[in-house]
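Subject: Interface between my chains keeps coming out wrong

I've been trying for a while to get a sensible model of this assembly. When I model each chain on its own everything looks fine, but I need the whole thing in one frame so I can look at the contacts. Pasting all components below, labels as-is. Any help appreciated, I'm running out of ideas.
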Amino acid sequence: MTDASLHSAAPKSLTAIDSRTRRRKAAETRFRLLGLGAVSLGLVALVFLLISILGNGLGAFKQTRVEFPVFLDAAVLDKSGTGDPAALKKITTIAYGKLIQKALEAELTAKGIDTLGLSSKDILGLMSKEAPAELRDRVLADPALIGQTVPFSSFATSRVDGFFKGRVTLETAARDANISPEQLKVAQAMKDAGMIATKLNLAFLTASDSSELRPEAAGLGVAALGSAYMMLIVLVLSLPIGVATSIYLEEMAPKNKWTDMIEVNIANLAAVPSIVYGILALALFINFMGLPQSASIVGGLVLTLMTLPTIIIATRAALKAVPPSIRDAALGVGASKMQSIFHHVLPLAMPGILTGTILGLARALGESAPLLLIGMVAFVKDFPAAPPEGLLQPATALPVQVYQWTQRSDPAFVERASGAIIVLLVFLLIMNAVAIILRRRFERRW
Amino acid sequence: MSVGILTLIVLGLAALGYFVGRQRALALVQGDARHLHSLPNYYGWSVALFAAVPALLLTAAWLFVQPVLIETRVSAMLSETVIAEAGSTGLVMSDVRRVADGLNAVAAKAGLDEAGIDALRADFTDLRGRLAEVGVALGADVDTSVLAAAKEYRILSGEGRIAMAVAVLLLTLAGGAFALWRITPEQRARNLVEQFTLALLIGCSMIAVATTAGIIVSLVFESVHFFNIYPASDFLFSTEWNPQFRGGSSLGLWPLVWGTMYVSLIALIVAAPIGLMAAIYLSEYASANMRATAKPLLEILAGIPSIVYGLFALITVGPILRDWFAEPMGLGNSSSSVMTAGVVMGIMLIPYVSSLSDDIINAVPQAMRDGSFGLGATQSETVKRVVLPAALPGIVGAVLLAASRAIGETMIVVMGAGAAAQLSLNPFDAMTTVTVKIVSQLTGDTEFASPETLVAFALGLTLFCITLALNILALIIVRKYREQYE
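Reply #2:
Try treating it as a single job with all components included. I did that and got this:
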C-alpha cells in the first residue's frame, strides 16, 4: 500500500524535465530578461536623449551665408565728402540696407537669376536683419572703404537657413508670414549660382545674444563668459570653505550633539531642491544685501552654497581614506595635530578632494533653476567687463541661455538651444574626464 | 579707493608683515632658530594674521553698516510728496542711488569737479537726458529733493569710503605693529596660529549651518509677509489658482500640489521598476565586465543637467507623446503635459533608484543567498523571496529620495509640464507644479511686495518642508536598515 503510493508519486525520470521545473526555469529566464530589459531601457533612453540633442543641435554650428560685392556709394554714405566720423555715424542702417539691396539685385541680374517677380523688400528679406548693421560697423571702422566695391558676406535670414537645413519647406513657407515660397526658390537658385553657402559658424560660440527677430546672429559668448565667471567664484570660494569644514568635522571636531547637528545639516543641504537656493539668493543677496540683479557674483555665490555640500562630502571621504598610521607617524615625530593634518593628511587627500571639487563644479555649471530667480533671464547683449567689476555687471549663463532660447517663438532658436546644450555637455564631459583621470592617476590604495 | 584694491593692500601689508615678523624672530635669537619656541614661520604668520584679520573684518562690517547709516540720513531729505507718489521709501531710495551713480558717471565723462556737480539743477538742465547719455535711464524727470538727496548720498558715501580706507589701513598697521612688538623667543607663536586656524575652520563649518538658517529665515520671513496680506486659509484650502495683475487673485495651493504629485507619481512609476530591475540585474546577474560598463553609463543619466532633460521633453518627448498617444486617443493636443514631464523625469531618476538600490542589494549578506540556493531555489526565486524582502526598507528609502528629487525638480516641469493650474486626472493635460509657479511668480513683472510675488516664498516653504520630511524619512529608513546587517 505504502509502497504503491510511493511508487506512483515518484518522478518519471531524472533526466526529463517535469512541468514544474520548466515553469520555474521559464520564470527564471523571464526575470533575467526583465532585468536586462531594464538596463537596456535605461541605456536606450540615454542614447535617444543624446541623439535627439545632437540631431537638433549640430546645425547650430553651421550657418547659411550670402556673399556678394557691395558698392559703398560715397553719395549715400558720405554726402559732405569730408569723411568726418561724426557725419558718418549719422548714416543709419536703413541707408546701408538700401545699398545692400541694390548690390544684391545687381548681383542677381549679373548671375542671371530670375527673381520671380519678388519686390526689392522681399529680396532684402533674404538677408539677416543684422546685415546692414554689420556693413555699417565695417565702414565706421575703416572709412577708407567708402567709394569702393567690397566683397560682403553676411548671414541669410533664419528661414532661408532653415530651408537649406531642412527645417523650412516650400509648404511651410506658404503659411509663413516671414518668407514666401518664391523667396526660397530664388535662394535655391542663388545657392546653385554659388552666392549662398552653408558654412561653419564660429560666431555661435563667441557672439552675444541677439533679439527675437534675428536668431541667425545669436551666439553664446556672453553666456559662456558668465558661466566662466561663476565657475571661478565657485572654485575660489567653495574649495577653501569646503576643505576647511571637512577638516574640522573629520579631524578636529569633538563628537557631540553640536557637530552631529552640523553633519545632519550638511546631509540635508545636499538634498534641498535647487530652486530653494534661488529663493535664498533672491531674499538674502539681492533684497537684503542689495547686490545687483543678474550679476555673476550673485550667481556664483548661490552656486557656491549649492556646491559646498558636494565638496564637503567628497573631501570627508578623501580624508577618511588616509590611514591613521600617517597621522600617528607625524604625531610620533613631534608634529602638532594641525601640522600632521596640513603637512601630511591634506596633501595625501588632495587628489580625492580635487576630483570631488571638479564634479561639484560640473554640477554647478549645469544648474539653472536658482539662476532664473536672481534675474539672469534678462536679455543681456553686452559682454561683462573683466573681473572684478565684471562680476557685478549683468551676465547670463549657458543653461539659462538655453532656457531663454526655448522660450522664444521662432523655431530657429530651438536649434540654437540644442547647440548650446552640446557646448554645455562637451564642457561637462571634459570636466568629468579630468576628474576620472585625476582619480586614476593619483588615487592611492593603502 | 575700491574695496578690491583696499583688500589687496591689506593682504600685501600682511605678506610684508610675515617676512618682517619672521626676520625679527630670527634676529632676536641671532639666527639660531633652536632658541625659538616655535618655527620662525609661525612668528611671521602671527604678524600677518594680526595685520590682516581685524582689518578685513572691519572692512566687511563697514560695508554692511555704512549704507544703512547713509540711507537713514538721506531718506530724511526726501519730500513727502515724492515718497507718496512712488509708493514707498525704498523705491525712491533706489532712484536716489541710481541718480547718484549717474552723477558720478556724468562727472567722469564731462570732467566736472565737485562745484560743477553741485551746480547741476534738476529744474534747469536736462538732467534726465544727461543721465541717459551715461546709461542711467530714469522713468521720469528728476525731482529736486531726489537730486538733493542724491548729491548728499554721493558726498556721504565718498566720505565714508575714504574714512573706511583710512581706518582699515590704520588698523592693519596697528595690528601688525602690535604683533611685531609681542614677538619674543618665548612667545608661543605656533599655538597662537593654530588656535586661529581652528577658529577659521570652525567658522567655515558654520557656513553650512548659516545656509540652512538663511533658507529657513528668508522663507519664513517672507511667507509671514505673504500671510499678512493674503489669508492663510485661502492659500491652504482653496482649490483655485488664478493670479491677477491688479489684485484680487486666488492663490490656492492645491492645484499646484496636485500637479507636483501627479508628475512625481508618473516619474516614480517609470523610474522605480526600471531602476530596481536594473539594480537587481547588475548586482545579481551581470558579469563583472558588463557591470563595469553599464553602471557608469547609467549614471551618466544622473550627471546630465536638468535643463537638458527639459529641452528633451520640450522638443522630442512632448511632440512624440502628443502625436502618437494623446491625439489618437483623443486625450488632448498639448505637447506639454504631466505625462511628458513625468516620463522625462522618470528617465532622470533611473540612476538615483538603481545606484542606491544596488548598494543596498549588495549589502544583503551572501549567507542569506547561499542558504536559499542550498534549499534549491533558483536565482530569481532567491532574489524575489530572500534578497528583496531583506533589502525592502532600503529600497523604499531609495524611492523616497528619488521622490524628493522629483518634487523639487524645476527645469523639466518648467519646460515640459505647462503652466495651467488645474485639477485634472488626464495625464495628457498640461498642468503646473509648485516649482513652475515659484519661477513664474518671481520672474514676472509684478511688484515685489504684492501677494502675487510673495506667494512664491510660501510655495518655497511648502516645497522645503515636503522635501525635508521625505529626506529625513528616507535617511532614517536607510540608516535603520544598514544597522540591521552591520
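Reply #3:
Confirming on my end. Residues 241-485 of chain B form a domain with the MetI-like fold fold (CATH 1.10.3720.10).
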